Amino acid sequence: FAALRRLEIRTYIDHDLRRGEEIPERLLRAIKDAKLSVIVFSENFAASKWCLDEVVNILECKKRSNQIVVPVFYRVDPAMVRNQIGSYGDAFGKHEQRFEGEMNKVRKWREALTEAANHSGWGCSLNKVEYEIVEGIAKDVMEKLNHVYVGDLDEQIRKFEQLAELQDQYYNAIP
Fold it and tell me: For the chain, how big is the Rg over CA atoms in Å?
């Protein structure tokens, strides 16, 4: 968060969310409006219904609006996330008991974790210097966002070109 802010990248982090509540509308709006989402998978990530719901929402936005997804595997192997094994398997065992009548929800969470873990991401293990990884992630995000903004600019230019062409056709059609 601090590294992204240092690079003047507008960020949203859910510091003031309370456990047990539904995901607030402002968080869903922040996810929807984002050009890029960084998902930090930690050892206890899958125990949180909120975190799992956020991943589902992020991936829906990726499908709808090509949002960029950058997974960070903080002291967990991507295979744990992808295959829901280890602490992820334990968490899903509990979810399956708790949401016994809502297995569709649990299935969506599983699919979302598998899909997210299949994205190329960043690994942060005990034998790496976290500061260097954080700076690398921040620079990667900056590069990805700069590419997105250039694409947005190209789209705006295309719209202006189309408008100019329509205006030209209109003025040429006037006798």
Answer: 20
Give the other-Cβ count within 10 Å of 4's Cβ: 19
Q: Do the Cβ atoms of 164 and 33 come closer than 8 Å? A: no
Our answer to whether residue 54 is catalytic in this structure is yes
- pLDDT for the residue numbered 107: 94
Residue pLDDT, tens place only, 158-167: 777 777 878 8
User: 72, 39 in Cβ contact below 8 A?
Assistant: yes
User: Of 21, 22, 25, 54, which one is the catalytic site residue?
Assistant: 54
The range of the structural domain enclosing residue 110 comes to: 1-144
pLDDT of res. 134: 80
> Higher-confidence residue: 29 or 155?
29
Whether 52 is in a domain gets the answer yes
